[in-house]
Amino acid sequence: MNPFERIFNRYQNLPPVDLTQGRSIAYSRTATRRMMELIDANGQGNVHGGVVMRLVDDSAAIVAIKHCQRSVVTARVETFNFLAPAFIGDMVTVNCEMNFVGRTSMEVAVDVTAEDLITREVRKIASSYVIYVAIDEQRQPTPVPPLTPADDEERIVIERARVRRTLRKKIDEEWAQAEREAEKI
Ligand SMILES: CC(C)(COP(=O)(O)OP(=O)(O)OC[C@H]1O[C@@H](n2cnc3c(N)ncnc32)[C@H](O)[C@@H]1OP(=O)(O)O)[C@@H](O)C(=O)NCCC(=O)NCCS
């Protein structure tokens, strides 16, 4: 079987998902680790920013897929902050957890650290929020299980995400309005 056929077949006849059964943040929380190698370097000898972005997208997608048990597509990188450089030889850890779930979309919060395994110094190097949309066999958005807090700590995380989402909608509307205004110039 050629690999394209295998991929196509794998995502047909997906198992049913109980959409009444909420899932906690802990249910899908994921940490991905990778050593930075020469192939990851930029021209200055640090880790290339695009390598970190790819790691973030790959790792955050795992959380989204675990939560909804469906394929997902990246709909938006909400924020992406590079806080410090990572170096070749560092171990980069990408910590991801679900923060908010809409009808078909999911917001995953990401924290990235780099550890010098010799000195054991750990630095926070990036943070991000990435939004995924679950898709069905026809690659159309499909509903996902709700995010149900397991405890008070998770409840606060979800509430903060709800506030961010409301603010983002407002900013999006203002941005669209500003673009319409700009087009008139
Ligand atoms: C993401 C995508 C599936 C959305 O399709 P669509 O027809 O616009 O879907 P809808 O308007 O029904 O929106 C579906 C959900 O996505 C959310 N969404 C869509 N675009 C979004 C964006 N740019 N930012 C944030 N959320 C977005 C909607 O708010 C909605 O969320 P909800 O169901 O939780 O309320 C479609 O735009 C797409 O396929 N984009 C390309 C994805 C891609 O190729 N990614 C890179 C490689 S994985």
Task: Provide a descriptive summary of the structure in words.
The protein is an alpha+beta fold and 185 residues long. It has a single domain, classed as Hotdog Thioesterase (Thiol Ester Dehydrase, Chain A), CATH 3.10.129. It contains 4 helices and 5 strands. A 5-stranded antiparallel beta sheet has the order 1-3-4-5-2. A hairpin with a 4-residue loop joins strand 4 (105-116) and strand 5 (121-135). It is globular. The termini are far apart. Bound molecules: coenzyme A (COA). Residues 73-76, 102-105, 131, 133, 141 line the site of coenzyme A.
Helix and strand layout, with pairings?
Layout: H1 3-10, H2 25-28, E1 30-35, H3 49-68, E2 71-82, E3 91-101, E4 105-116, E5 121-135, H4 152-183
Antiparallel strand pairs: 1-3, 2-5, 3-4, 4-5
Quick synopsis:
By secondary structure, this protein is an alpha+beta fold.
Largest sheet: 5 strands, antiparallel
Give the overall shape.
globular
Q: State the fourth-level CATH superfamily.
A: Hotdog Thioesterase
**Separation of the first and last Cα atoms:** 56 Å
**Helix and strand pattern:** HHEHEEEEH
- Class computed from helices, strands and strand pairing: alpha+beta
Number of helices: 4
Bound molecules: coenzyme A
- Mean pLDDT, nearest integer? 96
Low-confidence stretches: none
**How many structural domains?**
1
* Count of β-strands: 5
Assign a percent range to the helix content: 25-40%
CATH topology: Thiol Ester Dehydrase, Chain A
> How do the strands of the widest beta sheet line up side by side?
1-3-4-5-2
Strand content: 25-35%
Mind telling me the C-alpha Rg?
19 Å
CATH class value: Alpha Beta
For the record, the CATH architecture stands as: Roll
